[in-house]
Amino acid sequence: MELFKRIFSNFYIIIGVVFLVWLTFFDSNDLYTQIKQTAKLKGLEDEKEFYVEKIAEVKADREELLSDDELLEKFARENYLMKKPTEDIYVIVASDED
Fold this sequence. Notes:
This protein is an all-alpha fold.
């Protein structure tokens, strides 16, 4: 009990404890906010990694398309329904029957 009185009668220890409690619970950058921000940062880093991989894939596909004329023609015909002047295009749409 005497040790308890001696510790808590010291001004610097009381101020230190109050300061730690304030930083842990009441500050705008409290412990809960720091944990939440760390989780958000981890999610954003994962998202960045995903998009960097996607950009690399798209660049590789683009380079492949621009280097091969037959592949470029196939892409234009399938995605943009382009055709030669003497051709007819028939689009077949699959119906969603359950």
